[in-house]
């Protein structure tokens, strides 16, 4: 495709990753654009009345990568950085993630370009409802199912669901996932991504012969994914020596007080103010010595500049796209020194349990929390074993192996279905 609306560093990164995997799989050039470029991209204006009596217009987006395997699935983020290129890249990664996990979905992603922390509760509700109202012609329980992401939460999903249901004239729980339990959500959804990251870290440590009780970890990002990962790793006996969010970063080789952190964040909502004694430059946190490094914040934080300085044994990608292609090349040159858990495997717990929520909503039959996590760990274990086996068989990095599995699933489905008309 010579000219495209998709651009920017995040989309360029997703495209370069795909090209590398396509080269490995020897996919014909004439078949690549159909696999890479999204089926549909929607851009909308979302006007709302602000509390001061003005009218403000926010830009919203939704990208549906492919509907070959079933409806599309993906989160909706409210963040200042949101643009069509970023959203498209995230939808592409979600496609490979769902295919690797064996879910009957294509990838999607959406968002609004806004800092949600600048909105009042009433303004946030108004923007959430207007965004969903604009999306109604393009989404549905068997077309595109939304979920929370950065800057959104269970309450926003409840507003999405209510807005769609009012339009349909009946309650449609299955239009979104990540909802409150009281509106058709599933037990375990909020913790699913973080607990999945911790489970796979445990499997990686086993492969390396490192006991969890002797391991140390640094977690960058202390939102839903990062905080749950931190607590879950601590419960497994891992010593947490570093954490950070957008307000502060802390590092202590002797181990941080996780219970104190939890109390502080519950009270203040962020890490800043927890301590003045163990503060560290956020850019320095990533290169401190540890057994497990978990980037669980934003894209492109492991770069060509810092990849050679990482001092971890396991790189567990809790965020989407935290490692640039340049960094990947450096990590590959370092050989087996760092065990990489790529994002489309490592953080798949969220979409897996979102799938479980969708299934429960469709059936109107809900599971106990133990059953949810038992099923989650079984899916993650299968994906983990397939990825490791593919990497060993083909002598390729874990990311290439995971993406090769996902891309191959989508490619095979497209070839089987053919091209209509």
Automatic annotation (TrEMBL):
Enumerate the SUPFAM superfamilies for this protein: Aminoacid dehydrogenase-like, N-terminal domain, NAD(P)-binding Rossmann-fold domains
Residues binding NAD(+): 193, 224
- A Pfam cross-reference name: ELFV_dehydrog
Q: Which residues cross the membrane?
A: none
- Biological process per Gene Ontology, one example term: L-glutamate catabolic process
Q: In the UniProt record, does the keyword Nucleotide-binding occur?
A: yes
| Limits of the Glutamate/phenylalanine/leucine/valine/L-tryptophan dehydrogenase C-terminal domain | 186-418
Show the InterPro entries listed in the entry: Aminoacid_DH-like_N_sf, Glu/Leu/Phe/Val/Trp_DH, Glu/Leu/Phe/Val/Trp_DH_C, Glu/Leu/Phe/Val/Trp_DH_dimer, Glu/Leu/Phe/Val_DH_AS, Glu_DH, NAD(P)-bd_dom_sf, NAD_bind_Glu_DH
| Residues annotated as catalytic | 109
Q: Where does substrate bind?
A: 73, 97, 354
Q: Does the keyword Lyase apply?
A: no
- Keywords in UniProt for this one? NAD, Nucleotide-binding, Oxidoreductase
- Organism superkingdom: Bacteria
Gene Ontology MF: a single term: nucleotide binding
* Similarity comment: Belongs to the Glu/Leu/Phe/Val dehydrogenases family.
Q: What is this protein called?
A: Glutamate dehydrogenase
